[in-house]
Design goal:
It is a single chain. By secondary structure, this protein is mostly helical. The chain has one domain. 82% of the residues lie in helices and 0% in strands. It is built from six helices and no strands. α2 runs antiparallel to α3, α4 packs antiparallel against α5 and α4 runs parallel beside α6. The longest helix has 23 residues.
């Protein structure tokens, strides 16, 4: 006999639900970090997205991967700008670009457009970091 909760939430879905929670946490921390002068919240956002990506792999759930990876790229972009770090900035550009391309290929034009705008900002940040 199976329990009622097993009928509604099979054990194999729980890691993805946990990953969604980490993704949401990353987004909240990103928004807070954008408003603050320090990088602490942004680095927390990067870590939350890293945790989400442990379950939201490109092979398993490509669209969810694209969202988490892209969001992490945006957080990395702001960390790079504040720290003046070229390597982090390059990573941010690559992640945002891959996320945009994955979402575009899947037909999610709204999300792809968002990451296209973020990509333009990330490229400008990269140029700014390289100049200094």
């Amino acid at each position: 006999m199976t329990s009622t909760s097993a009928k509604f939430a099979p054990h194999w879905t729980l890691p993805l639900e946990w990953a969604q929670t980490q993704n949401n946490l990353g987004l909240a921390l990103l928004r807070l970090g954008e408003r603050e002068n320090s990088t602490a919240r942004l680095e927390e956002a990067v870590a939350a997205d890293r945790d989400a990506l442990k379950e939201r792999t490109r092979e398993r759930v490509p669209l969810e991967w694209a969202m988490s990876s892209g969001n992490q790229g945006v957080a990395l972009m702001w960390v790079a700008q504040r720290k003046g770090d070229d390597a982090i900035s390059r990573t941010a550009v690559l992640q945002i670009e891959a996320s945009r391309d994955t979402l575009r290929a899947a037909g999610d034009s709204l999300s792809a457009e968002y990451f296209e705008k973020q990509l333009q900002i990330a490229k400008a940040v990269l140029e700014q970091v390289r100049r200094h």
